[in-house]
UniProtKB/TrEMBL annotation:
Pathway given in the UniProt record: Amino-acid biosynthesis; L-tyrosine biosynthesis; (4-hydroxyphenyl)pyruvate from prephenate (NAD(+) route): step 1/1
UniProt protein name: Prephenate dehydrogenase
One GO molecular-function entry: prephenate dehydrogenase (NADP+) activity
Species: Nocardiopsis metallicus
Catalytic activity: prephenate + NAD(+) = 3-(4-hydroxyphenyl)pyruvate + CO2 + NADH
PANTHER family according to UniProt: PREPHENATE DEHYDROGENASE, PREPHENATE DEHYDROGENASE [NADP(+)]
Residues annotated as domain Prephenate/arogenate dehydrogenase: 14-294
Cleavable signal peptide: none
Amino acid sequence: MGEETAGTGRTVLRRVSVLGTGLIGTSIALALRARDVDVTLSDPDPASLRLACDLGAGRPMDRTPGSAPADIAVIAAPPAVVPAVLRQAQDSGLAQVYTDVASVKSSVLEGAERLGCDMATFVPGHPMGGREKHGPGAARADLFLGRSWALCPTGKADPGSVAAVTELARLCGADPLVLEAGAHDRAVALVSHAPHVASSAVAARLVSAGETALALAGQGVRDVTRIAGGDPAMWEEILTHNAGPVADVLREVAADLAATAEALHAQSATAATFASEADPASESGSEDGMQPVRDLLARGRSGHGRIPGKHGAVRRPVYTVIPVVIPDEPGALGRLFAAAATAGVNIEDVRIEHTPGLPLGVAELYLLPEAVDTLAEALSAEGWSVHPGV
Ligand SMILES: NC(=O)c1ccc[n+]([C@@H]2O[C@H](COP(=O)([O-])OP(=O)(O)OC[C@H]3O[C@@H](n4cnc5c(N)ncnc54)[C@H](O)[C@@H]3O)[C@@H](O)[C@H]2O)c1
Ligand SMILES: O=C(O)C(=O)C[C@]1(C(=O)O)C=C[C@@H](O)C=C1
């Protein structure tokens, strides 16, 4: 399970095996590679494995008989298969310590116990970083920077196993947090799983939205519905495995929404009466009717304010975005990237905003702040329409 560095109390991880090279497995592998850990990879989907290797996340696992066990094996597969993958990995002596990353913990632990897994070397985990995209192509080495990483060891876990998985989380830039599996599941029902359903419920309204409404979509609806873009099959699995706690939270959300809808319905009837009778004296009555709405908005603001990480806790690099107008024609993006390369500037990320029917689009280039002036000057000199600071 790795060695302990004398005097530091920290475990040194030299070799980690990642089973499942999707979004989370590949992101963990990339973070570990950046810390010079030797990473071996496996996935039943050869295309995922190949892409993860090509991205520099590690090398394919080679299980020749007698090969030394890795310090840790990370099972980064869908929740339902974790216990079986764990049992098989332990039977083959793949690693000294095992962890997983599934978004639910009680059902994974129950499954592992049921299959007779060795619970001394298994420390279930859940990194609280992710994206609405899946697969290795969406992976990022910085996905877990400044995020919590839940660890849910049972009483049977060896302290050395817990120390090794704690170090794994730290190497990925996360803050390990040890808690009991049931407490974890109730907590993530509140801060992750029910929010996902609420986001889906809002996004589902857009299925039958008219083109005019969609054309008016701004950042608000994009923020509220981003996570609804996640993989439905994965989320069905997560919700099935944490059904009770998620249902409890959703009942409370539904009660707030129902009370708000009721109050607004009554308000709209009152407003219609005002319009026909022009009776300002009854206005105070309508304000009282708005009390449930006022109350929800105030509680919502307070709850939002309680989310940690607003005061510098997140150490994720902050990129500066510079918009560049690009003609809608073949090769335009290639020329833009070539100009950045000539200027010696690395584009960290790029998004394209394109309005169908218009001959132009906007490429939003994500840069390290210190690279902005260099690139803006180089692109302007080549005649590009650059808009830093917009
Ligand atoms: N997506 C997120 O935001 C997020 C965040 C934290 C944790 N998680 C958890 O991480 C796990 C992986 O999710 P993801 O988002 O990376 O999904 P993903 O679809 O990107 O990747 C899952 C990978 O697991 C592989 N796989 C399937 N069966 C396997 C098996 N038997 N053995 C090994 N690999 C197998 C698939 O081929 C795929 O490459 C899930 O348990 C999920 O609950 C997801
Ligand atoms: O940021 C996102 O896209 C996520 O949904 C990530 C998120 C979350 O709810 O925070 C989703 C599920 C995971 O199990 C952990 C993290």
